[in-house]
Structure formats: C-alpha cells, structure tokens
Amino acid sequence: MPTLKIPTPLRPYTSGESTITLPGETVAEVLEALVERHPELKRHLLGDNGQLRPYVNLFLKEENVNQLQGLETPLTERDTLLIIPSIAGGKEHRRDHAP
Amino acid sequence: MDSFLKINIPGGILEQIHSHCERSYPEEGAGLMLGKEEDDRRAVAYLFILENAREDAARHNRYLITAADMLAGEKEAKRLGLSILGIFHSHPDHPNQPSEFDREYALPWYSYLITSVQGGQVVDSKCWRLRDNRAGFVPEEIILTD
Predict the structure, then answer these.
(1) Given the DSSP bridges, would you call strands A3-5 and A19-21 parallel, antiparallel or unpaired?
(2) What is the complex's ipTM, to 2 decimals?
(3) Which of A7, B32, B67, B100 is the most buried (most CB within 10 A)?
C-alpha cells in the first residue's frame, strides 16, 4: 500500500503518526482513506467544496501532483506521498482567494 | 486547546523579526520560527527568514511561503535538531490581529506571530494559534527570554 507522510502540524490529528500506510491506487483514493481513518483531518485538508485547500501540496517523487495528473495521479504500492504545506496570509484589505 | 498558550522567544530573535518587518515595509515580511516543543513548552531558537514569494503588486498585503520554502525550512530545522514551530509575518499599517485571509489559509498547531508596522516603525507583535475547528485564533502569550 502507498505511504503518506504527515507534516508536524497535522500529526495531532493522526495520533502523532508521521507515516501512514493507506489503501488506494490514486492520490484521491489515498486521501479518502486518510480522512476516513482520521476524520478530524478533513477540515484542515479539504475546503467546503471538497477540494484540497490551497495550502495543501502533495508531492510524489519530488514532484507536485498538480504537475502530474492531480488527484487522479496513479500510485503504486511502493510510492510515498508527502503532504507539504505552503503558508499564506496577510492583512485584511481586499477580498480575494488567491493564496 | 486552552487559553493559556505560551511561546518563549529570546529578545534578540524578536528584534530580528522586527528588523526584518521594518526592512520589508511597506511590503509584508515573513519567515519561519524554528525551535523546540517539549511537554507543551514551546521555545523559538532560530529564524529562517524568507523572501515574500507573492508577486510584486500583492506584497503590500499578502505573503506567501511556498512548499519549496517549507521543505528548505524543514531541512534546516532538521540540521539544527529543531522543528518549524510557526510563522511570523508583518501587517504594514494595520493591527497585529489575524485577518480573515490569515484564518482561511492557516494551519493548526503552528504559532502565527503577527507584527504591526505603522509608517515603517514596528508597533508591537502578537502571537496566535488557529482553533481546532478553524473558527478563529487563540492568543498565545509571548514570553521574552534572554
């Protein structure tokens, strides 16, 4: 089964686990298995529209899956997927949704 | 999460944060705070200062630390035997309260230190942590250390 590496700020929601092995043949399936096993993670990974939050980046072999096939990127049993956050913010000034 | 969160920051490191925020004015300055957390005691020990990755026109009210920056920060933290404890950024000509934009893009667990810079001069910094339900931030008291 593919392996998923969890960044420090999300480990409180995985009982401290930094590496989790999950079933799934695509990135989407592995994420689905992750939030099924750890439901409290869902609000931090996915927005109200069910899409990945903008700061959640998934890397496979040092490539962002957005540069591959996105959530439909196929995974093999030996693959390791990394969740790498990016950080955005700023003062209130105008309403936009670009990170 | 309780309402008695505290973070120890050496005075010299807070001064470095303030200097960086003043140099970045009128744009937002940002970076990573590296340190250790033991028995819920959080202590900053090192700064990993980064360039604001937002495009020029947005740097006055937005900051971005890319995934590549975070990977570099993780690598540096590991080299030093530390962890990324949080992020600092400035609010030029704006209070040091988290904005709605800050909340939307915040991660749990991390300490978010926000520095208000008015007219190029630092006014004050406050630290915050995102609530588990993402409904807002909880203040985190800054304890200045030697």
Answers:
(1) antiparallel
(2) 0.85
(3) B32
Residues from chain A contacting residue B109 (CB–CB below 8 Å): 8-12
* Interfacial A residues in 23-42 facing B (CB < 8 Å): 40
Q: Does domain A3-85 have CATH number 3.30.365.10?
A: no
**pLDDT tens across A15-66, in order?**
999 999 999 999 999 999 999 999 999 999 998 888 888 889 999 988 999 8
Is the CB of residue B109 less than 8 Å away from at least one CB of chain A?
yes
The rounded distance, in Å, linking the Cα atoms of A6 and A20 is 8
Measuring CA to CA, which residue among A85, A68, A62 is closest to residue A26?
Answer: A68
Q: Show me where the domains of chain A are located.
A: 3-85
- B32-41 pLDDT per residue, tens: 999 999 888 8
Given a contact cutoff of 8 angstroms between Cβ atoms, the answer to whether B89 and B30 are in contact is yes
Q: Would you say how long chain A is, in residues?
A: 99
